[in-house]
Amino acid sequence: MIGIAVIGYGYWGPNLARNFAETEGAAMMMVCDADPRRLALAQKRFPALLCATDFEEALRNPDIAAVAIATPVHTHYELTKRAIKAGKHVLVEKPLTSRVDHAEELVMLAERHGVVLMVDHVFVYSPPVLKMKELVAQGRLGKLFFIDSVRINLGLFQHDVNVVWDLAPHDLSIVDFLVDRLPVSLSAYGGTHADHDIEDVAYLNLDYGDGLIANFHVNWLSPVKVRQMIVGGSERGLIYNDLHVDEKIKVYDRGIDVGSDPNQRSRAQISYRSGDVWSPNLSTREPLSRMAEDFITCIKEGQKPVTNGESGLRVVKILDAAQRSIKSRSGRVNI
Fold it and tell me: Rounded to an integer, what is the distance from CA 327 to the centroid of its chain?
């Protein structure tokens, strides 16, 4: 059994504790939180659980092999670094860190100490995203042309990060999973309305090279909640709507066919294709459950998880470049 301690029992910590308590091969042993009231809630939910206000208690406990860190972004680097140096495997909430050099250091440290470093990009483990990856890997969409992503809602305002660092990691991690490479360059624009120091609306444009461009809209001010991603390819396109109960993915056999003779291409050489629309059957398993299982399996077998430290680093590099672009008034940034 892999002993687990959850660090931070605020918004996300209870979900981590519940899933590790239900994961085969894991032993949910401890919760650490600076607020005794949060610890009381954890103790009520898990009566046999060890509770501590001091993170060091988890690091000193020889029965705890791994920690799951669900604390504010600005604490990720220091807590993760201390855990790795103590020989603990680490699952850390997204994003990995708030600085590229810190993320690079953590990836290097995890490799040096022989521990698993995993980032909680939970959407990568969701059935719709796994199906998207399968369709892309099988070539069902053809060559990818564009990705348009919208993740908008009213609130929840953060005080330590802007809307890009808060919401964009979800969709950036999904696209990273689909294409498995960094973009070549990006430009970003953000607006501040509630707090002049923190952007609450932002638009990102990423160039992945080879004809693939991706656009992301993140927003805390929208009167409606939208969670949608459109992926367009040379053969088919799909729409991923995370708010749809029954048909989260729809695949469209629609697009264009271009004449093969490059010297005769014109409007007349382009024909439109309109075929079937279908929605694949998807598992209803909770993504966090699948992620917790992957974390435990990788610890036992010495493997790297899907959302490993390197993938977390790539997302941080994009976030950092987007922040620099916003501050330079949407100047193009090479990555």
Answer: 24
Residue 106 in contact with residue 84, Cβ under 8 Å? yes
Name the one residue in this structure whose structure tokens are 């990273």. Answer: 176
Tokens representing residue 254 in the block = 């629609």
Fold classification of 124-286+318-334 is Dihydrodipicolinate Reductase; domain 2 (3.30.360)
What CATH number matches the domain at 2-120, 3.40.1280.10, 3.90.550.10, 3.30.360.10, 3.40.50.720?
Answer: 3.40.50.720
* Residue 156, pLDDT score: 83
Q: What is the pLDDT of residues 44-53, one digit of tens each?
A: 999 999 999 9
For the cut 70, the answer to whether the pLDDT of residue 266 exceeds it is no
- Residue 262 has a pLDDT of 62
Query: From CA 296, how far away is CA 302, in angstroms rounded?
Result: 10
Sequence spans of domains, the chain: 2-120, 124-286+318-334
Question: For the residues 87-92, what does the mean pLDDT come to?
Answer: 98
**β-strands 2-7, 270-278 pairing:** unpaired
